[in-house]
TrEMBL record:
GO terms for biological process: D-ribose metabolic process; pentose-phosphate shunt, non-oxidative branch. The active site is at 105 (proton acceptor). Keywords: Isomerase. It comes from Kriegella aquimaris. NCBIfam families: PRK00702.1 (NF001924), rpiA (TIGR00021). It comes from the Bacteria. It catalyses: aldehydo-D-ribose 5-phosphate = D-ribulose 5-phosphate. Pathway: Carbohydrate degradation; pentose phosphate pathway; D-ribose 5-phosphate from D-ribulose 5-phosphate (non-oxidative stage): step 1/1. GO terms for cellular component: cytosol. Catalyzes the reversible conversion of ribose-5-phosphate to ribulose 5-phosphate. This is Ribose-5-phosphate isomerase A. Substrate binds at residues 28-31, 83-86, 96-99, 123.
Length: 224
């Protein structure tokens, strides 16, 4: 079974958790896209929900497939949020932000009563950090932040797209960090978030209720 199939199976399983009347956080990335397509099919068949997108790209796709959208401030609290991840460990700690949407994704997750992660089997790791940790930074401070994080041994790299800095939906910049050698991840997260100009990190710690992982031809559940 290919990775795309694993993503799709996890995505389809997650949509079964969405019930009539729910306010739904819509994640970003290729796995979340499978979920949005399936949710669109269910809406076409009569499922009545409203979605809060975690990125401009997700908003566009959701509109294309007919999912009614509302803003986070209209929704206030979401019933369920379904999103992908770049890595997760056995304690359900995540690295997210490979697609650059980590800030809104974290806000949507924080404002959701139940957080579901959907992933293919390659996302499961024994130790977080093979995937470089994305952080979102204010452009005014990015060079200084890179200087400070270099001194901390985190090998920061400004994310580029076709040679130019990648801009987030909030017009910020992403810096990718090598955290593989760090043992105390919660402490690292605290240190990072205290540096002025770092808006958010891609470490999603203790925010996930359920992970659905496509593995071969089945979907494995990891629960709190
Ligand atoms: O955090 C994300 C985007 O900011 C995505 O959820 C993460 O990158 C996983 O993406 P994919 O499902 O394409 O592997």
């Amino acid at each position: 079974m290919g990775l795309e199939q694993e993503k799709k199976m996890a995505a389809i399983k997650s949509v079964a958790l969405v019930k009539n009347g729910m306010l739904v956080g819509l994640g970003s990335g290729s796995t979340a896209a499978f979920m949005i397509l399936k949710l669109g099919e269910e809406v076409a068949k009569g499922l009545s929900i409203k979605g809060v997108p975690s990125s401009d790209a997700t908003a566009k796709l959701a509109r294309e497939v007919g999912i009614p959208l509302i803003s986070l401030e209209e929704a206030m609290k979401l019933d369920i949020n379904i999103d992908g991840a770049d890595e997760f460990d056995s304690s359900m700690q995540l690295i997210k932000g490979g697609g650059g949407a980590l800030l809104r994704e974290k806000i949507v997750a924080y404002n959701s009563k139940y957080n579901v992660i959907i992933a293919d089997s390659t996302k499961e790791v024994r130790r977080l950090g093979k995937f470089k940790l994305p952080i979102e930074t204010i452009p005014f401070a990015t060079k200084n932040i890179i200087g400070e994080l270099t001194e901390m041994g985190l090998k920061p790299k400004l994310r580029l797209v076709k040679g130019s800095p990648y801009k987030t939906d909030e017009e910020n910049l992403i810096v990718d960090l090598d955290i593989f050698e760090w043992d105390d991840i919660p402490n690292l997260n605290e240190m990072l978030i205290r540096i002025p100009g770092i808006v958010e990190t891609g470490l999603f710690l203790d925010s996930t209720d359920l992970i659905l992982v496509g593995k071969g031809d089945s979907v494995i559940k990891i629960e709190k």
